[in-house]
Amino acid sequence: MMSLLGRTDVDAGEVFVNFNQNITSLAVATSGGYSLYSLGSVDSTLDKIYHTKSDELFLIERLFESSLVAIVSQRAPRKLKVCHFKKQSEICNYSYANTILAVKLNRERLIVCLEESLYIHNIQDMKVVHTIRDTPCNPQGLCALSSSSEHCYLAYPGSVTAGEVQIFDAINLHAKTMIPAHDTPLAALAFSPSGTEIATASERGTVIRVFSSQDGSRLFELRRGLKRCVSIVSLSFSTCAEYLVSSSNTETVHIFRLDRSATETAEGHGSKQSSDDWMGYSFFRFLSKTVTSYLPTQVTDVFSQGRAFASVTLPEAGVRRMCAIATIQKQLRLLIASQDGYLYVYSIPTVEGAECQLIKRHDLRLEDHYAMDIKVDSPQTLGLNSGVSIGGAAGVPPSSASAAGAGTGGSGGDGKSAVSVTGGVDKPSSSYASAVKGDDPVGPSSA
């Protein structure tokens, strides 16, 4: 999913923001606690599902609309807690050898990203089923997990010097493909909702590319800008997969339309255009080929790259923002959550080049958002025992640890690294299974 790493924002009184996998809720964390909001009526109100006081959170990920959340606090950055927020219960916690930089969830897998390794958990029982070790140094915790169970792919950088993307099949536990996406190191990754496409951006930030995650073929090349290099912070496909949105350290958010019909036409796949349209298209293709044949490769690339369908200019640059496009109450909406504490809601135009219209700006720092705060009592375990140490992390009593053998080697590993479990991992309870499946209804309630 989408997350803001680095905690200087918390020190500055700013917030951590993160959308869930299908853009139906927003997680907001401040130095005093975290809240979960429903986005179903975001045009007018922002309904608070849950709020609790807690340590300063480093990461928070919610599993779709379920009651399951994975959190990492600044006080214990090596410990992952999996909680059932509706039951106010801690399901389990895992400790790792180094700082957790990212956590990704879908209904099959939970991924924990460290600087030089990735742990793949079976989310049904939280056992480690695979470990990818000795990955290229990844200090930003850059990785992506498809939200699809059918195409359950994990993507992560394959190089520290070039923009290589490693695609790993997280169900069958083997490498899928390697995509040489960019000349410079990667800055952002995002899967389409189906998991069959992946968008990439490099540290240069001028070009965004979309590839097939199954065979690595390039599908789209999109130009964000020509004038300056920027740092891409967020990439996200729309829930309908027809748009891609990007934000950076500038004040501009770009929306690209992924016109697959045009791609099929260009490849000669069953075009049904009128003769006039086809003549115009053929002339454009002829002109493009004629002109670009006399130009350097760098210039011809510019001719073939798609431009932004629409854009939004926000008040200031230098603010990290997470963006998403979702259909809300049958209307397509652009959602921009920023670390300075605001959620912007925009309509998306139907005509290329038109402006996105601001519908609503929500202040995420306000406590009064049409829901009850829930007081959390002392955590209770829920089917899975707490206290799992991965890779020899401190904080788990060694006298009660036992070998678990759940981890298996990935790239660069021998599959024999010690995984010690305190108290073992029990069979999940029906409450936990319901939470994973999303059968457990979630809504505002009092303790």
Automatic annotation (TrEMBL):
Pfam families from the xrefs? PROPPIN
- Hey, what's the signal peptide range on this chain? none
Q: Which GO terms describe its biological process?
A: autophagosome assembly; autophagy of mitochondrion; cellular response to starvation; defense response to virus; glycophagy; larval midgut cell programmed cell death; larval midgut histolysis; macroautophagy
Please provide, in alphabetical order, the Gene Ontology terms of the cellular component aspect for this entry: autophagosome; cytosol; phagophore assembly site membrane
InterPro entries this protein is in? Answer: PROPPIN, WD40/YVTN_repeat-like_dom_sf, WD40_repeat_dom_sf, WD40_rpt
Stretches for region Disordered = 397-447
Domain of life assignment: Eukaryota
Keyword annotations = Autophagy, Repeat, WD repeat
- Keyword match Repeat: yes
Give GO MF terms, alphabetically.
Answer: phosphatidylinositol-3,5-bisphosphate binding; phosphatidylinositol-3-phosphate binding; protein-macromolecule adaptor activity
Compositional bias of type Gly residues: which residue ranges?
Answer: 406-415
Which family is annotated? Belongs to the WD repeat PROPPIN family.
The protein's name is Autophagy-related 18a, isoform E
Write down the species.
Answer: Drosophila melanogaster (Fruit fly)
